[in-house]
Amino acid sequence: MAKSRHNKGFGYKGFTLAEVLITLGIIGVVAAITIPPLISSFDKKDKASKIKKFYSTMSQAIQLSEIENGPATTWVKNPMAYDEEGNYDTDLNKQYTMDFFKTYILPYMKYSKISDGSAYNKPDGTNITIKIWLNDGTTFETKNGSCIDVVLDTNAESLPNIFGKDQFQFLICNQTISQQGYWGNTNRIFGPYLYPNRTYYSSRQKALQRCKDIPATCSALLIMYDNFVFKEDYPW
Fold first, then answer.
1. Contact at 8 Å (CB) between 218 and 210?
2. Phi and psi angles of residue 17, each rounded to the nearest 5 degrees, phi first
3. Distance CA 210, CA 206 (A)
4. SS3 174
5. pTM of the entire predicted model
6. Whole-angstrom Cα distance, residue 29 to residue 22?
7. Which phi and psi angles does 42 have, rounded to 5°?
8. Looking at CB atoms within 10 Å, which of 104, 122, 160, 221 has the fewest?
9. Domain edges within the chain
10. How many CB atoms lie within 10 A of CB 162?
11. Which tens digit of pLDDT belongs to each residue from 158-203?
12. How large is the greatest C-alpha to C-alpha distance in the chain, in angstroms?
């Protein structure tokens, strides 16, 4: 009588459905824990790099312009214009802003187009800014004030459009009285937006607290304090 043969070497057993589901669940949990911090870390590094590049680009444009147009303190910067009712004259101030940038800044930097801004600080929807697209995909908006307000948007058209998260505010001040008022000295033309009281920014700790209270007046300064790095205690 022939004996049955059993090939014990090939007696593999497959995974059960329960085991597969448990494994996929574990992978999902690990991914949920690890991927968001990685994305956040990349996003912060990308934004910090863009802010640093923008600061360098603007500073260099001003330096190059001074070679051809003389010291920035001699550049023509019209004061804020008001209409007959005492309201901010949108059209005239936008023209002043455009004239200033086309004369002193834009010839010395690379950009792709200019248009009306998105009225970042006018809840009634009135466009009081002009918007400039840079070749690296960022934009900045600018308007005529006591200085020239400049707001960098690191992700251009995308949301959230919130100060301290994707928008960072700077100033171009070419008049000594404004430089003294905002920065406490006359050593710079372009710098972070420091208002309403520059004493809040005399140390990193004060700048950090101010960021938590009023992001629009602090976020650019805080990242500059930290050498263009978003540190762990950055509030957003």
1. yes
2. -60, -40
3. 6
4. coil
5. 0.81
6. 11
7. -65, -40
8. 160
9. 29-193
10. 13
11. 889 899 999 999 999 999 888 888 887 888 899 998 765 566 567 8
12. 117
